[in-house]
Amino acid sequence: MRKPPDPMTASQRTLQNKVAKVCQLFEENVGEIDHPTTADPLASLVETLLSHNTNDRNRDIAFKNLLETYPDWEAVHHAPHEELAQVVRVAGLNRQKAKRIQELLAYVKETHGEYTADFLREMTFEEAVEELGHLKGMGFKTIAVVMCFTLGVDVFPVDTHVHRLSKRIGFVPEKYDAVKTFKAMRPLVPEGKSYQFHLHLITHGRQVCHARKPKCEECFVREHCLYYFQNNRN
Q1: What is the model's pLDDT at position 2?
Q2: What angle do the packed helices 94-112 and 41-51 form, to 10 degrees?
Q3: Which residue in 48, 70, 155, 234 has the most C-beta neighbors within 10 A?
Q4: Per the domain annotation, does 4 fall within a domain?
Q5: How many CA atoms lie within 13 A of 67 on its CB side?
Q6: What's 116's domain CATH number?
Q7: Is 195 inside a domain boundary?
Q8: How far apart are CA 104 and CA 88, in angstroms?
Q9: What are the Cα distances from residue 104, in Å, to 124, 174, 207?
């Protein structure tokens, strides 16, 4: 469930229409993406913490190591910090991540009486931020990823690729950081399209709109792209 949007200015409505058009172009050229069934939100929170500043492969290996080493979340919570850090070492920033994982587990146990984040299933994104936002590593991106991917909440996560493409296409100003981009994009993405559009932009960022030397000649979005008009039009 989304928070009711604030009234839009004319420029915001123009941007909303642009985002909707680009979203439609991805559907037409790439196809629609079905949302998977929901999973365990606590596991997803831990996995997303491990994903910070690393790639998907290292995250997956670290998470697999964690699950194979410890029988349950209680064992992870009470594991010696240095031991846990070594178990997730492949993910990088391992001591920091081990600390944040154990802080998360301590919080849910102390607050909710068990190792669960099922309370998120009944929350809006804003409520989830109020619940978990005080914890280290639980920023907008982490909570949005879990709420969107795991629980099917219609909220649009902003990762590195999404941030870059949002600026390049012209959805948000170049000077915006990821948090400002997240806040600006929330009312612009068509209702019900957050998960799909997020994945479309990530894939496009990896395959076409590279950080260096984007393949503008292969891009079906180029006629709507500010970067293309500024750098590639004759």
Answers
A1: 54
A2: 160
A3: 155
A4: no
A5: 12
A6: 1.10.340.30
A7: yes
A8: 16
A9: 19, 34, 35
Q: Domain range holding 81?
A: 41-150
Residue 100 within a domain: yes
Q: How far is CA 12 from CA 17, 135, 152, in A?
A: 9, 33, 26
The predicted structure's pLDDT at residue 5: 57
Owner of token pair 């949002």 = 166
Distance CA 74, CA 136 (A): 19
Mean of the per-residue pLDDT values of the chain? 92
Q: What is the number of structural domains in the chain?
A: 2
Are 74 and 105 members of one domain?
yes
List, as own/partner pairs, every contact residues 65-73 make where C-beta atoms lie below 8 angstroms and the sequence separation is at least 24, other chains included.
65/90, 72/115, 73/42, 73/105, 73/115
Residues 140, 147: Cα–Cα separation, whole Å: 10
Q: Which residue has the tokens 């629980």?
A: 151
pTM (two decimals): 0.86
> Can you tell me the distance from the alpha carbon of 204 to that of 226, in angstroms, rounded to the nearest whole number?
16
Residues 126 and 226 in one domain: no
Residue 20: CB atoms within 10 A of its CB come to: 15
For residue 224, count CB atoms less than 10 angstroms from its CB and return exposed for 0-12, middle for 13-18, buried for 19 or more. Answer: middle
Query: For 17-60, how does the pLDDT look when each residue is reduced to its tens digit (9 = 90+)?
Result: 999 999 999 999 999 988 876 689 999 999 999 999 898 999 99
Residue 196 near residue 157, CB atoms below 8 Å: no
